[in-house]
What does this fold into?
Amino acid sequence: MRESWVNYAERIGSDLHLELSAPGGKRAALIGALREAVRSGRLAPGTRLPPYRSLAADLGVARNTVADAYAELVAEGWLTARQGAGTHVAERTRPLHPAVHKKAPAPDPCARAPRHGRSPRHDLRQGTPDVSAFPRPAWLASYRRALSQAPNEVFGPGDPAGRPELRAALAAYLARARGVRTEPHRIVVCSGFAHALRLLFGGGGGNRDGGRQVLRGPLAVEAYGLPFHRELLAAEGVRTVPLPLDEHGALVDRLTRERAVLLTPAHQFPTGGPLHAERRAAVVDWARARGAVVLEDDYDGEFRYDRRPVGALQSLDPERVILIGSVSKSLSPAVRLGWMVLPERYVGDVLAAKGEREAWASVPDQLALADLIVSGSYDRHVRRMRQRYRGRRDRLVAALAERAPHIQVSGVAAGLHAVLRLPPGTERSAVEAAVRQGVALDGLAEFRHPDTDMAAHDGLVVGYATPSEHAYGAAVEALCGALAPGGTRVS
Ligand SMILES: Cc1ncc(COP(=O)(O)O)c(C=O)c1O
It folds into this structure.
C-alpha cells in the first residue's frame, strides 16, 4: 500500500506521515499505523488528527475507513473525540519509553521529559529554569534588531568560532559578571556544556578525518555530579576518576596522574557549596605542576543570593583553566547556546574539532544573544530571575523549617536547587513519599559516581525553579506533606 505525507498544514499546522503497510485490509492497516505513531511518541498527546476527508484523500482510502479507524482508537482509549473539536491523541497515551531505533543516548537529567508516563503534578526535579519566564519580548526585540542589521553573510555557512559580535559580547559580559580574564579570540561558541565535552574529548566529529581529541582522560570528576556527563564521557572512551567531596568542595589534594579535572567551583553540583579558596589555588597549582588542565563548569554562576558572587576560577590562571558556560539555566536549555573560554594553546584544536563550518549553534541565534547581552536585557532578565529564585528558595526554607524542622537544608546560597539532608537510610522512602504526594524529585544517590568510596549522603535534590510561579506554592506544600515528621522511614 502506498506511503503518504499528509499535508494538512493549512488547517492544523503539521504533517502526518503514515505508512499503511500492515496486512489485513486498509482499516486494520490504518489503525495499526496510528496506534504505532501514538505508542512511539511520534504523535504526541493532545495532537489534533486530520479531518476524515483530508486523511482519506491523502491515503487514497474511503472516508468511512478513516472514520471507523478513529472510532476504534477512541474506543481503545488512544484517541479522544469531541463534537466540534475534532479528534485528538489522548493525553494519557504518552509513551513510557519512546521508540528508539538506534543505540539509546545516555539520559540527560537536564531534560524535563516526563519519566513516569505523564508529567508529575509537582515537578521539583533540578535541571530546568522557570520556562514560563523566558524573556519573550526582549528576545524578540533582540532578534529583530540583530536580523535587521545583519550582513547577508550571516545566512551563509557560519564560522565555527562563533559570530564575532557574540564572542565580543561574551568576553565583556564574563569579565564583568564572572571575573573571567579573556579576549574574544579565545572564546569558541558551542551549543552548551554537553557539546563542549564532546568537542574536547571526542573531537566533536565535525572534522572530516573523524574528529581529533583535544584532551585525553583519565579525567578526575567530583564524586557527585551529573550522570549524563559521566556517561557522555564514557561513550567517548574517557575514564572518569571520582574525587571525594567534603563541605569545602572536592578534595583536590587527591589529584594525581589525571590529565584534567572537571569541577563546579562556584556551586558544587549537586551538593551545593563553593570550592574553598585554598582548594581553588591548589587545583591551579596542580594543573601547572602537571601540565594538566582544569575544566570549570560554570553552569549557574549568575545565581548567587547570599554572599558576594563567587568569581570564576578561570581568573586564577587563564592558561590552565577552560571555563564552560551556557544559557541553559539563565535563559532556557532549549536555546542551545554555550561558550568555551580557552587557554590560547587549545583554540586551534577546538576549532579543528568543530569542523569547517558552524554545525551546531544557529548563527542568527548567536546574533540575537549578542544583542540581548549588549542591550542590557540579559542582565535585566538574570536579575529578575535571581530575585524570583531567591524568593522561592526562602519560601522553601521557611516552609520546611515550620513543617519538617528535622530536615537540614543545604547548598542554598546559590543556584536553582537545594539539598535536603536526610538521616542515613531514609532517602529512598523519602523519594517514595514525595512521589505519593505527586512530587517528582531525585535523591542524591542518583548523582553519585559508581566508583567512589566516599561515604554516601542521604538527601533530596529539590529544584525550585521549574514550576511556574502560580504552581510553586502547591509544590512546596506537597513536598512538606511528604517530609513532615513520621513521613519517612528507614528502609
Ligand atoms: C551540572 C550542570 N552542568 C551543565 C549544565 C548545562 O548543560 P547544557 O549547557 O549542555 O544544557 C547543567 C544543566 O543545565 C548542569 O546541571
Q: What stands out?
A: The longest strand covers residues 321-326. Residues 377-403 form the longest helix (27 residues). The two ends are 56 Å apart (CA to CA). Confidence is low (pLDDT under 50) at residues 1-13, 94-105, 112-116, 205-210.
